[in-house]
Amino acid sequence: MSAIEYSIANKDGKPVAYLNQAQTLTLTLTNASGADLELVGSPPVLETEADSNTSLLYLFLGSLVSDPATVQISCPGWTPQFQNTPQGPVWCLAQAENSTFKDKAKLTVTLDGVNISGLPGPRQVTVDCWFGDGDSVQLPVMAQNDPGKLLPLNLVFALNGGNVIYITEKADSPMTCSLVFRLSNPSPDTPIVPEDVPWGPQAPSFTLSFVYADKGDGFGALTSAERAASFTRQTVQDYGNRWSIAPSTQGSPSWTLTPDQLTNKQILGTGEQASFEFMLGNIVTQLKAGTTLAYLQWSNIPGYQDGYQTVALVKQAPTPGILRFMTLNASVIRQGTPVQLNWQTFALSKRTISWSQDNTPYQVVVPANASAWEPDPQPDDTVTYTLDGYDFNGNKVPNAQQTVSVIANAPVINSFSVSPRVAAFEGANPNVQVTGKWQASNVKTQQLNGTPGQSPQTIGLNSAGDVILLITGFQDQMTSQSQTVYSTPGYIQTFVSTSQVSGGTNGPLIRNVLAFDRGASTGTWTLIRSDDLATLTLARQGFTWSTSELNIKLVFNDGSSTATLSCAFGNLTLTARSGSADANGLQPLAMLVQNAAGQNVPVFSAVTTK
Questions:
Q1: Other beta carbons less than 10 A from residue 103's beta carbon
Q2: pLDDT at 416 over 60
Q3: Domain boundary residue among 389, 407, 425?
Q4: Which residue in 297, 401, 414, 430 is a FRET match for 88, CA 20 to 30 A apart?
């Protein structure tokens, strides 16, 4: 069997041809068989007449240029002949005399006057080589706009989950494989296309293509063009509304990736928007083991040259075991992002997937015909999944693992309330029952004043104060809110506000004393004046009282005076007062000029409770 390596390049050594200009491409054949090849001289003949006794080259350029006859073909020692055949126009190269193609030697064919028209995208040169049994290889040529003074585009083209394609050994038992490709913007702060940069008249696009071989060993090709036409395609995760993937309808199989101008003007952004992943599936090859290339070409990116990148793919024969285990999402995801595991195995009788989540172990047996699975429950924290397999003798093969790191969403308290908000705290151990209700998201544990529970939750309070809701989320993230439960007067509760009549430290003190009887909803106001000489009661009047939410309303017995006090932590604060003075010129709660602390807020402090 012969083993010829094929390549085609421009003067810069790249498989690139610029649109609408004459240029030269060089086709190179390298003897990589490990031995000398004896080539048989013969005149040019149609390919239908070629056989193993001839050593001929056939170049099909119809997928490269509109008129192959205009291309000048030359190769030292070989005679070119242009032929119009039922298979299309073709150049045949023949040598008159026998020759030896030395091991590792190169045969160079020059293509002058190559002028490509149309739009940017992949083109192909098909080479049928009749050295021995013959090869047929399709080589990609990237048709690009002239770069002019534009900048080269810096992006990352890589594979997620491995670059191995397993060879099908029996046509009736195909080894179907898949490849997940990733495009990434390496810039941490600048999208490929900033918001203030418009797209041009031609939409930006990316095209993926491969090397194909329709006959022969195909060491450097992925598969045949016929098999490639059956590849499946899909975007990964939530990119479906931002990118479209369409197969080419002309030439050898290729796939065009187009960003949506409305939802993805920046093409590749930054942070979470910096990458795009897509998958090709149903990849089957029966070509020989070897290395081949995947080509990603881009064009019409605002401000940048057309360009391309490649990644290497390896074809190899499978052995019993786990061939591939991967996730169809990024290795680091946000909580709530669906996870799908994907694998490929060979000659196994049983497969299990195991993992641990929230200290609970899980294990599932996956069906023999399954190659993808979504964990249940989905991960809410970093999880390592283990795929185990067993051969048909019951022996366990080496396992494979995939770790999905989860960026947990912070816990959020959407609402929180307690009832009652005002309570009478009586005796040494009042144990007032307070019920908290709340709604929260991204919750792992929740507690009310240190007691674990769920909404609604009732706890006992021995004194007025805060009720604290503490929510713990995943990865030990925490958030809290509090609600205050206030005290109402007890059965007999005295509140005092002390005012200074005049400045300095020697002026008389005025005390407004409020004594409440909760059982009768009545009370007494007393106005007391005291100095170094005496303490006098200046006025006294009864009142009735009632509560409304956090307020206490007083109605004095004179029938005209009222007062409203707000309740907080066992203190009362005067917020409103009305009425007129009595016969002595005194009005309930009127002498609240300034309290002893020098504050202008008339605060009554609780001093006794029975």
A1: 13
A2: yes
A3: 407
A4: 297
